[in-house]
């Protein structure tokens, strides 16, 4: 999906190409990414003309990325920032690291000799790998419109993009859409297990659970209706769905559990800042 300005995606320095960096890279490669450099010690399947650096000391001196995408674990930030400092003097940094704040990252870059680096945050999710991602971004006032547009161009190549004006909202975003695919995959796992518990063969339980989750997601994506409306259309009064929802929607069941789970994820994002 390409909603941003036309033209090839710019050259990137992608730092960390694991679950999230790899998901985004898959989408960018499909959208004609300009020759880029990927810093990751595991990837050996990156097609030319892109290059892989196994370690920071292998990064080419003459490479001039338009953007540096930081996609290592937040706990690796202190280790990785000195390695990218020289690039951050000339190009903005787009961090997808959960919790790590613009102020903290900017201060860390300053402490390793990069004054006035521009850091923008994004929280993507793994459906980016198939162009179905949801990314929410935050840019500080120091970021220019051109830098914001560059991020929108890049991220809209892998899905939908929204911006928030308050950085604190990034923790809630992380809890809902960054971590959210895991909640949906858990739902598929639990439906499969419950089907088996009801006597279904394992293969059939897996097939119907997966197809139900993916089909319901596709219907939701194509529908103008609220999720609650779509739910009601499945729910016959006094029928089977009602019997299940009486359990799932009890105040102490999914409503309370989901709220507590998302609060816990947001709390953890705040803790990861330091
Ligand atoms: N996974 C997800 O769904 C999402 C993740 N995020 C954020 O994305 C970031 C990355 O997460 P994720 O993709 O899951 O993490 P991964 O561990 O899968 O990916 C990070 C990759 O970077 C490599 N790496 C780290 N440091 C170096 C280094 N110095 N030199 C070379 N390679 C290095 C890692 O190798 P090694 O393992 O050997 O260190 C790993 O391959 C996190 O900050 C997370 O908060 C955001 C949204 C969703
Ligand atoms: O679990 C995590 O910390 C990362 C951030 C959002 C999804 N995965």
Short structural summary:
This protein has helices at residues 19-30, 77-88, 102-111, 145-156, 169-178, 180-197, 202-222, 227-234, 240-248, 254-272, and strands at 12-15, 37-39, 51-53, 67-70, 93-95, 119-123, 133-138, 159-163. The chain is of the alpha/beta class.
Layout of secondary structure:
Blueprint: E1 12-15, H1 19-30, E2 37-39, E3 51-53, E4 67-70, H2 77-88, E5 93-95, H3 102-111, E6 119-123, E7 133-138, H4 145-156, E8 159-163, H5 169-178, H6 180-197, H7 202-222, H8 227-234, H9 240-248, H10 254-272
Parallel strand pairs: 1-2, 1-4, 2-3, 4-5, 5-6, 7-8
Antiparallel strand pairs: 6-7
Bound molecules: NADPH dihydro-nicotinamide-adenine-dinucleotide phosphate and (2S)-3,4-dihydro-2H-pyrrole-2-carboxylic acid.
Describe the structure.
The structure is a single chain. The protein has an eight-stranded mixed sheet, sandwiched between helices. It is elongated. Helix 1 (19-30) links the parallel strand 1 (12-15) and strand 2. It folds into two domains: 12-170, Rossmann fold (3-Layer(aba) Sandwich), CATH 3.40.50; 180-272, Orthogonal Bundle (ProC C-terminal domain-like fold), CATH 1.10.3730.10. It contains ten helices and eight strands. The chain has helices at 19-30, 77-88, 102-111, 145-156, 169-178, 180-197, 202-222, 227-234, 240-248, 254-272; strands spanning 12-15, 37-39, 51-53, 67-70, 93-95, 119-123, 133-138, 159-163. The two termini are 35 Å apart. By secondary structure, the protein is α/β, with parallel strands linked by helices. Bound molecules: NADPH dihydro-nicotinamide-adenine-dinucleotide phosphate (NDP) and (2S)-3,4-dihydro-2H-pyrrole-2-carboxylic acid (A1CAB). (2S)-3,4-dihydro-2H-pyrrole-2-carboxylic acid binds at residues 98, 174, 178-179.
């Amino acid at each position: 999906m390409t909603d941003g300005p036309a033209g090839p995606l710019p050259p990137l320095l992608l730092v960390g190409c694991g679950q999230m960096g790899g998901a985004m890279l898959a989408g960018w490669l499909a959208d004609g990414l300009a020759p880029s450099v990927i810093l990751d010690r595991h990837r050996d399947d990156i097609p030319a003309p892109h290059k892989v650096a196994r370690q920071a000391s292998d990064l080419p001196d003459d490479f001039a990325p338009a953007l540096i995408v930081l996609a290592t674990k937040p706990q690796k930030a202190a280790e990785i920032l000195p390695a990218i400092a020289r690039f951050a003097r000339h190009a903005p940094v787009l961090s997808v690291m959960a919790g790590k704040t613009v102020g903290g990252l900017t201060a860390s870059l300053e402490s390793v000799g990069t004054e006035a680096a521009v850091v923008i945050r994004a929280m993507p999710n793994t459906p980016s790998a198939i162009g179905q991602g949801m990314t929410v971004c935050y840019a500080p006032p120091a970021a220019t419109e051109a830098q914001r547009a560059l991020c929108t161009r890049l991220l809209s190549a892998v899905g939908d993009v929204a911006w928030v004006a308050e950085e604190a909202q990034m923790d809630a975003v992380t809890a809902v859409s960054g971590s959210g695919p895991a909640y949906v995959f858990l739902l598929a796992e639990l439906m499969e297990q419950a089907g088996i518990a009801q006597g279904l063969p394992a293969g059939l339980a897996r097939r119907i659970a997966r197809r139900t989750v993916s089909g319901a997601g596709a219907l939701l994506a194509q529908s103008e209706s609220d999720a609650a409306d779509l739910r009601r259309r499945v729910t016959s009064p006094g029928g089977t769905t009602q019997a299940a929802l009486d359990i799932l929607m009890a105040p102490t069941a999914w409503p309370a559990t989901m709220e507590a789970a998302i609060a816990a994820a947001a709390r953890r994002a705040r803790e990861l800042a330091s």
